[in-house]
């Protein structure tokens, strides 16, 4: 599935975009939206946890987990462990981020699960969890047979990329949905905050694209996606 191009340039730009995306979502939620809080009389501060954790957790850390095989110059076994741990962190932060959205809705008397973004979000986090559990059991511990691992590997990679692309797309939908709500409440359509949110969505999509390109490019080793258990 390699493109015939080295992965290094793609992973380098992915890291830069990851930093930019993390900074931009923090500036939005802290500077423009007032900050983050788990308990607050201003319930919007609770909601602000959601985009921060979903972007930095599920999208950025999840993306770094995917490209760790191509960007980390360590032994295969170490890269596998990094891949596993980063995905676990991404999954946990994603779950907390979704819970923050439910908490905000419940405390603000807003219905849950009424939008495409919310339904896709639930489906994605469930699929992400299934993917992680399967990868842990088959490729880490206790580990499947050689034949099962060999047969599972292309499906594991393909399904993982499918879930990740869905997550990136849903993040873009989420930015659009929230910005639409804000603009309908009086936010200037051509103001600095609106531009920041739109550019954050664009950076998110570009980051996802570079993650996909890095996976499709040539790594430093023929063994980047070997199927042996740790």
From TrEMBL:
Molecular function terms from GO: metal ion binding; transmembrane ascorbate ferrireductase activity
Q: Where in the cell is it found?
A: Membrane
Give start and end of each Cytochrome b561 domain.
13-216
**PROSITE patterns named in the record:** CYTOCHROME_B561
Q: What is this protein called?
A: ascorbate ferrireductase (transmembrane)
**Which superkingdom?**
Eukaryota
Tell me its cofactors: heme b
Q: What is its main location?
A: membrane
| Documented EC number(s) | 7.2.1.3
Membrane topology term reads: Multi-pass membrane protein
Group of enzyme by EC: translocase
- GO CC list: membrane
């Amino acid at each position: 599935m390699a493109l015939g191009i080295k992965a290094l340039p793609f992973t380098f730009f992915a890291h830069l975009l990851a930093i930019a995306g993390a900074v931009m979502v923090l500036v939005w939620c802290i500077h423009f939206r007032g900050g983050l809080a788990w308990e607050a009389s201003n319930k919007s501060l609770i909601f602000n946890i959601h985009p921060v954790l979903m972007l930095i957790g599920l999208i950025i850390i999840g993306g770094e987990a995917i490209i760790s095989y191509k960007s980390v110059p360590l032994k295969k076994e170490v890269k596998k462990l990094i891949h596993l741990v980063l995905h676990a962190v991404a999954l946990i932060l994603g779950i907390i981020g979704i819970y923050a959205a439910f908490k905000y809705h419940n405390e603000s008397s807003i219905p849950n699960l009424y939008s495409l973004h919310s339904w896709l979000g639930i489906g994605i986090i469930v699929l992400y969890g299934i993917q992680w559990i399967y990868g842990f059991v088959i490729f880490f511990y206790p580990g499947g047979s050689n034949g099962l691992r060999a047969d599972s590997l292309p499906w594991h990679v393909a399904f993982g990329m499918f879930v990740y692309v869905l997550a990136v797309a849903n993040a873009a939908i989420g930015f659009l949905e929230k910005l639409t709500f804000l603009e309908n409440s009086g936010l200037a359509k051509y103001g600095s905050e609106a531009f920041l949110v739109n550019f954050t969505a664009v950076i998110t999509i570009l980051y996802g694209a570079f993650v996909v390109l890095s996976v499709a490019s040539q790594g430093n080793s023929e063994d980047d996606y070997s199927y042996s258990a740790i």
